[in-house]
């Protein structure tokens, strides 16, 4: 295997931190292993050669491919299910009681291959079936990686992932294909807008959200980048809106003005 020289590793660490907020300082072996395929793809025999190629690639595609390899996209259906229980048992009943807003905006930030937003779509559909009042839901799902966004948009997954979806939901929301895959039904795919977005640069946009899921993303950020992002996410929430973070990403009290409501969930009062 091609080894990373100290200065090559330092360059990659610096680049990933500055541009994407990723902290790779203690991940030398991971960087070597994950970039092996990229070096082969571009027929280069050293990391220096590869980094020069990236700096000359005006399209930015090579740099994006490198970052996509270096980020962890691990995700699965029904992950941290307590969040979906909270949505079903607390958040949606609250919306139904108030009968507002008429359009409910949701953002899955760092959506990876889409299992998170489709679990959410299934949860919303199930709630809708109870006959309770429901607003129109607009869902945005973003990630920095093009390849994962492509897969998320297709809604196609390996058949073995079907096991983590409750049987009744499989029937309603998934179609099994002939090649050991299944696809999320169109009715659930169509309402989700997928978009490339770098959370490192994120500043509050015009669009405001009632619910933001930013789970298992900030874990890769250092404290300063995380604090900055949390502040921007807070600004992007409507009053009464919720921010859900990964169960291992609880926000220290001095890092947020949101109220902790349990299960790695925060509410803007
Ligand atoms: C471990 S996955 C988590 C997926 C999903 N949220 C979940 O909890 O299962 C982390 C995702 O965050 C994305 N990510 C990492 N850094 C990012 C950044 N700076 N901007 C946007 N997305 C980022 C990665 O590409 C990856 O797909």
Automatic annotation (TrEMBL):
Its EC number is 2.1.1.80. It catalyses: L-glutamyl-[protein] + S-adenosyl-L-methionine = [protein]-L-glutamate 5-O-methyl ester + S-adenosyl-L-homocysteine. GO terms for molecular function: protein-glutamate O-methyltransferase activity. One of its GO terms (biological process) is methylation. InterPro entries: Bact_Chemotaxis_MeTrfase, Chemotaxis_MeTrfase_CheR, CheR_C, CheR_MeTrfase, CheR_N, CheR_N_sf, SAM-dependent_MTases_sf. Residues 1-269 form the CheR-type methyltransferase domain. Signal peptide: none annotated. SMART domains: MeTrc (SM00138). Keywords: Methyltransferase, S-adenosyl-L-methionine, Transferase. Pfam families: CheR, CheR_N. The keyword Methyltransferase applies. It comes from the Bacteria. This is protein-glutamate O-methyltransferase.
């Amino acid at each position: 295997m091609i080894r990373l020289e100290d200065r090559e590793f330092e360059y990659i660490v610096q680049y990933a931190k500055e541009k994407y907020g990723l902290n790779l300082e203690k991940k030398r072996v991971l960087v070597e292993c994950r970039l092996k395929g990229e070096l082969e793809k571009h027929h280069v025999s050293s990391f220096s050669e590869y980094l020069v190629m990236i700096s000359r690639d005006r399209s930015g595609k090579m740099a994006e491919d490198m970052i996509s390899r270096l980020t962890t996209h691990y995700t699965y259906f029904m992950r941290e299910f307590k969040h979906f229980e909270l949505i079903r048992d607390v958040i949606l009943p609250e919306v139904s009681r108030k009968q507002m807003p008429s359009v409910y905006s949701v953002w899955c930030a760092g959506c990876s291959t889409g299992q998170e937003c489709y679990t959410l779509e299934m949860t919303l559909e199930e709630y809708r079936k109870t006959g309770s009042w429901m607003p129109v839901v607009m869902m945005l799902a973003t990630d920095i990686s093009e390849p994962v966004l492509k897969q998320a948009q297709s809604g196609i997954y390996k058949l073995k992932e079907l096991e983590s979806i409750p049987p009744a939901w499989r029937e309603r929301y998934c179609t099994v294909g002939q090649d050991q895959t299944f696809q999320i039904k169109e009715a659930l795919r169509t309402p989700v807008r997928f978009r490339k977005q770098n959370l490192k640069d994120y500043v509050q946009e015009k669009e405001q959200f009632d619910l933001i899921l930013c789970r298992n993303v900030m874990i890769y950020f250092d404290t300063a980048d995380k604090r900055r992002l949390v502040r921007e996410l807070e600004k992007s929430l409507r009053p009464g809106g919720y921010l859900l973070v990964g169960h291992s990403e609880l926000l220290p009290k001095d890092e947020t003005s949101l109220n902790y409501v349990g299960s790695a969930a925060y509410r803007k009062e």
